[in-house]
């Protein structure tokens, strides 16, 4: 399973093949205008140390950054997404630190307010599976990728406000039998570790990429 980053569109120019997590791709290429995923699913990040906009990439070819719904041609770190076919469970709260009114979910939710009676989620506990929060109902707006773990404030998943309009399990976006793509858009102030908690690793300055 690997992912190949190309500096040019349509798989041209300098390229680099990666088969493991990489927290800073700067020494391997200057910018990224096309990608090939030969196996597995990956999260590509706009900035080093798994920060910035996030893009979930399934097996397939992406001839330009628009094809993975990119906001620019910067990819500065990447992580392999472990296959998951287990159950899903999440608890959301209307107060920080896992306090206030709580509701447990095991399925997708196209409209948080209709089910939770609150449109703001200040903290959550991902017990099982991978999930994506959306800023607006019906899976629209900025998106935030969440792994299992406790998120005691909305900043822990990279959001600067607690508004969550909808969410769903990542299996609804990634089908192991077909090439698919989804975009997780976030300008994270703190990177999220594999355990789902905010990392204390300092962020390196983002390297600028140009068309």
UniProtKB/TrEMBL annotation:
The keyword Repeat applies. One of its GO terms (molecular function) is structural constituent of eye lens. It holds the Pfam family Crystall. Residues 40-82, 129-171 form the Beta/gamma crystallin 'Greek key' domain. Keywords: Eye lens protein, Repeat. GO terms for biological process: lens development in camera-type eye; visual perception. Coiled coil: none annotated. It comes from the Eukaryota. Belongs to the beta/gamma-crystallin family. Crystallins are the dominant structural components of the vertebrate eye lens. This is Crystallin, gamma MX, like 2. It comes from Takifugu rubripes (Japanese pufferfish). The lineage of its organism: Eukaryota, Metazoa, Chordata, Craniata, Vertebrata.
